[in-house]
UniProtKB/TrEMBL annotation:
Transmembrane intervals: 12-34, 46-70, 90-110, 117-136, 168-190, 229-252, 264-284
Protein name according to UniProt: G-protein coupled receptors family 2 profile 2 domain-containing protein
Gene Ontology CC: one annotated term: plasma membrane
Taxon lineage: Eukaryota, Fungi, Dikarya, Basidiomycota, Agaricomycotina
Main location: membrane
The organism's place on the tree of life at top rank: Eukaryota
Amino acid sequence: MFSTRTSDLLWAITSAVGASFCLIVLLVVAAVWWNPESRPHLDRVSFRIVTVALFVNMLFGISSTVGGILTEDSFLCGFSIFVLQLTLQFSSFLLFCIVLNLQLVVLYGLDGQKLERYYFIGSFLMSIILVIPPYAAGQYGWDPLEQVCWYTNDDPRQRIAWQIGTQMAWTAMLAFGEIAASVSVTIFMLKHRIRTRQIFVSTSGNGTVSSSPPQVVHANNYKRIIIRIALYPLASCFVNVLSIFTALHSTLTDGIHDQEDYNILLLSDFLYGGRAIVYALLAASDPALVRGIQTLYHSLRGSHNAHSIGKPSSNTSGSPTRSSSQSLVVQVELSTIRDYLPSEASIDDLPSRPEPSFVPSQKEGMINVPGKSASASQLRNEYRNSRYLPSTEPMDEEILRQEQAFHRQI
């Protein structure tokens, strides 16, 4: 029988580091949210879910640290595993809700902000339902197989039944659900991009183009953010699926008997302990938080400069600094103006302003505008230069409002 003390300490240390990372990121998020100028960067359903999941993972790291330090059965041993399982399931359901919300908003046009409360309520209720029965049945406590706080039942069949029924099966279903939802959103957006690229190719027939749902158009504008949001559930899927096999190994082999069993145990402890580290790093590198930190820095720096000279700060052109901060708020999460609709969207997706009438030309690939004949590419460039460059005309207020609303929902 191998001594598992080293693996227990690995679990405890990585869990403590992960909990510390989560706490640091949460403090940064609180600072960004506290400032009214940087707060709009965090006004996104997925980021609020990530913030709650980050707090839950901090509790997960603390309970894992306690479970890894204890060396004998006690009330604290069983309770720490109860908290561990509760936070583990709660976090897994929340991360699944991120990609689920993405699917509901992009594919079906539902309002993510209205669904937000149900994500939290449903995730918490499902977690409670899964962890209370095994805790009430005394299944959490000192593990005779791994010599650590985990499942107490030494009967292989009953132990596997409890592990699969209350943890592993649900973890696997959430992981595969995350994959399915991510793939569906990706395929849907790719199909839309292909279709919109073809609208200027064929101008035969009546020349009409079917319009796309507004949320799909906005999703194309936010494709980088959507891809970044998908990293959360994908990382969760990778960690969870791998941890399922490593956690079940000692049960299937009836303990730790050789070096291979011990190496798998080390991997299992590292995955459980490093889980909080992964989510803390993902949240810390989220573009919303990064831009919020930048805005907070410039805001505090501007306030300091204004206080030091005794008057409101201004830029070199004489316009107030607040105007630049308002521009940042307006352009929350938008990469550049040139990433918008004209290059890829259909005519029906463009802002609802008076448009010239498009009539199919006799010549293939040409579009007739009253008094002018132009190719599709020329028309797109002309439209882009006349409508979307900020130096010529500001963005349509209704389109901007829709963009901001979509940002808050994803």
